[in-house]
């Protein structure tokens, strides 16, 4: 008999391929009775994987500065850690500094003799990730994507998030909407910009390049105190957009502060939407309307997908997106 696939097992048992996948990687959502039947059938059919393979060690790689960023990345890392703890998997995290990344030095923790799988979190250099991939250790990448690297990816549904933001603004009477980001940054920022351009046209809204700012450089911890960028950019007049979408919450905070420092009221004069829903979004003044990213769920899904990949090395790679939802707070209002 040739190679047995998940759909072959699904057909025999009479369930979906997704149910078989969940059962074989011990994920939630499958009853004990069905799980047992699927595993027994897989063994009988000679499915070429190690059922219930003991997985002991997983290593996580991320940029060193993620540990100085207290809002977004720690939640993804926590999700990975929580999922690993629930399955009694030993987890190690290695911070990659600039020199290590540029020189493509593989950390000692990435060793097939001591680690079963690797999770890369965030935007590391593609050449560096290629070297990790070349070790043939099962790999999952979170919040990043490269067409050049074949592996499993877990990302936010960035396009859907922007759709939710623009749909809300459109339905609340906003016709001219600006955008702030930086296309030299992460994959997610590029996707959010592309989605903004697409849905602005879809809703028939005016696109004015004067109010699409893609050169912001507020990346440091004290970003909110660096107002030079916005003092130069903001020229408030009758042509100024009534609403803005920002690539993340940090940009939104700085933009709101810049507006208010110049006497422009938010949301009275201008509505602002962020993206990520970091912890301080709800206590910022005004409380920020933002697209909620399920950060811990991304981490949990990454660990789950890695366990599946370790036991199913020949299955097709998957691109997984975790859905978003819009959280409406005080930084937006209906345009009269």
TrEMBL record:
Q: Where is the HTH lacI-type domain?
A: 4-49
Which InterPro entries did the record assign? HTH_LacI, LacI/GalR-like_sensor, Lambda_DNA-bd_dom_sf, Peripla_BP_I
- What Gene3D superfamilies has UniProt attached to this entry? 3.40.50.2300, lambda repressor-like DNA-binding domains (1.10.260.40)
Q: Which GO terms describe its molecular function?
A: DNA-binding transcription factor activity; transcription cis-regulatory region binding
Record's PROSITE patterns?
A: HTH_LACI_1 (PS00356), HTH_LACI_2 (PS50932)
Entry keyword annotation includes Transcription regulation: yes
Q: What would be one Pfam family of this protein?
A: LacI
Output the superkingdom of the source species.
Bacteria
Instruction: Alphabetically list the UniProt keywords.
Output: DNA-binding, Repressor, Transcription, Transcription regulation
Put simply, this protein is called Transcriptional regulator, LacI family
């Amino acid at each position: 008999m040739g190679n047995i696939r998940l759909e072959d097992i699904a057909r025999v048992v009479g369930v979906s391929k997704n149910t078989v996948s969940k059962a074989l990687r011990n994920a939630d959502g499958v009853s004990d009775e069905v799980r047992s039947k699927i595993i027994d059938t897989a063994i009988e059919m000679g499915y070429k994987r190690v059922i219930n393979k003991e997985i002991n060690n997983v290593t996580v790689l991320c940029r060193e500065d993620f540990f100085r960023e207290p809002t977004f990345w720690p939640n993804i890392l926590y999700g990975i850690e929580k999922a690993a703890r629930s399955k009694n998997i030993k987890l190690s995290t290695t911070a990659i500094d600039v020199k290590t990344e540029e020189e493509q030095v593989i950390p000692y923790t990435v060793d097939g003799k001591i680690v079963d799988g690797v999770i890369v979190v965030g935007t590391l250099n593609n050449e560096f990730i290629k070297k990790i991939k070349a070790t043939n250790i099962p790999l999952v990448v979170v919040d990043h994507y490269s067409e050049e690297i074949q592996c499993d990816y877990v990302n936010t549904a960035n396009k859907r998030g922007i759709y939710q933001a623009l749909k809300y603004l459109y339905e609340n009477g906003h016709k001219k909407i600006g955008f702030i980001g930086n296309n030299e940054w992460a994959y997610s920022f590029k996707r959010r910009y592309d989605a903004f351009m697409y849905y602005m046209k879809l809703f028939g809204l005016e696109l004015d390049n004067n109010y699409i700012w893609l050169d912001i450089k507020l990346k440091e911890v004290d970003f909110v105190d660096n107002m030079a960028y916005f003092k130069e950019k903001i020229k408030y007049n009758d042509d100024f957009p009534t609403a803005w979408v920002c690539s993340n919450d940090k940009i939104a905070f700085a933009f709101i502060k810049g507006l208010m420092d110049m006497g422009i009221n938010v949301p009275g004069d201008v509505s602002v939407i962020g993206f990520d829903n970091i912890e301080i979004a709800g206590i910022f003044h005004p409380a920020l309307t933002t697209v909620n990213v399920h950060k811990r769920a991304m981490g949990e899904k990454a660990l789950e997908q890695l366990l599946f990949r370790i036991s199913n090395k020949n299955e097709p790679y998957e691109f997984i997106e975790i859905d978003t939802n819009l959280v409406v707070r005080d930084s937006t209002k209906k345009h009269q």
